[in-house]
Design goal:
Distance between the termini: 37 Å
Helix content: under 10%
Largest sheet: 6 strands, mixed
Strand content: over 45%
Low-confidence stretches: none
Structural class: mainly beta
Order of helices and strands: EEEEEEEEEE
Strand order of the largest sheet: 2-10-9-4-5-6
Number of helices: 0
Radius of gyration: 13 Å
Mean pLDDT: 97
Length: about 120
């Protein structure tokens, strides 16, 4: 199993970023996918999950209405569109195979998102 996140960077408050998670080594279309994050000095936090066929999506209250999770099973890739970014969204964002679990062993290396003026 390999999960590779990309798309992070430095963005001003109110800006947008689109994160990608390229998956390999397993049948992507059969698994939920999840995004989590870890802010500096804080614990891991669940952000969003999507069902295997993309028909069901779930969001933490802190990002609901601003973030959109999606997936392209033909490309074995999951996405997280982040709009109206706030300084408190600054974190290392991870992609997980399956549902949320703090100790999920199927997790990428992460991509850094920094929201700052």
């Amino acid at each position: 199993v390999q999960l590779v996140e990309s798309g992070g960077g430095l963005v001003q408050p109110g800006g947008s970023l689109r994160l990608s998670c390229a998956a390999s080594g397993f049948t992507f279309s059969k698994h939920y996918m999840t995004w989590g994050r870890q802010a500096p000095g804080k614990g891991l936090e669940w952000v969003s999950s999507i069902s295997s066929d993309g028909s069901r999506t779930y969001y933490a209250d802190s990002v609901k209405g601003r973030f959109t999770i999606s997936r392209d099973n033909a490309k074995n890739t999951a996405y997280l569109q982040m709009n109206s970014l706030k300084s408190e969204d600054t974190a290392l964002y991870y992609c997980d195979r399956g549902g949320w679990a703090p100790d999920n062993k199927y997790r990428g290396q992460g991509t850094q998102v920094t929201v700052s003026s």
